[in-house]
Amino acid sequence: xxxxxxxxxxxxxxxxxxxxxxxxxxxxxxxxxxxxxxxxxxxxxxxxxxxxxxxxxxxxxxxxxxxxxxxxxxxxxxxxxxxxxxxxxxxxxxxxxxxxxxxxxxxxxxxxxxxxxxxxxxxxxxxxxxxxxxxxxxxxxxxxxxxxxxxxxxxxxxxxxxxxxxxxxxxxxxxxxxxxxxxxxxxxxxxxxxxxxxxxxxxxxxxxxxxxxxxxxxxxxxxxxxxxx
Length: 229
Prior knowledge:
229 residues, alpha/beta, five-stranded parallel β-sheet, three-stranded antiparallel β-sheet
């Protein structure tokens, strides 16, 4: 049976990564977390003390020169999970903070950054057999993907999920701040000039606001199996 490309897009904190990981495991496919790739780039520039505004105003040639110094990969762990590596360093924990997530959303609007990462993503998935999640996978990275899913949920539900994640990581977030961050990221993602977040015309929409994890995965498995026929 041919191995297909599964493109999963949607808003922040919709559970895209969790769903994509589980689907990849179910299908025996490779999982590519594109959001983690943007977070890794953001972390690289945070460590260089280069702010997002400075990057957006930087000459294209200079920015591309800096981007070429970034190598992102996914290292499989003994328990089967995968960690993001940035220039050989495991940065999985570092990229999951609210600061890095917010910075990643800001640099994602920069055309040079998107083109740099889209080229890498297309190379990773050119032979199929992958599940890739992000904001523009079904519209820009793999518009020819055999299965496109678009995940959504209400901002309040997504903020609550994000709040609980941060608490579990030992942080002390303020709920109002988390909701504001979710709304800000939604606006940036949908209004950026380069590859804005939007639903592909042939995507299957899954609103998981009121679904348990088991219910949504059961639905997604059915959609996947149908796409493979």
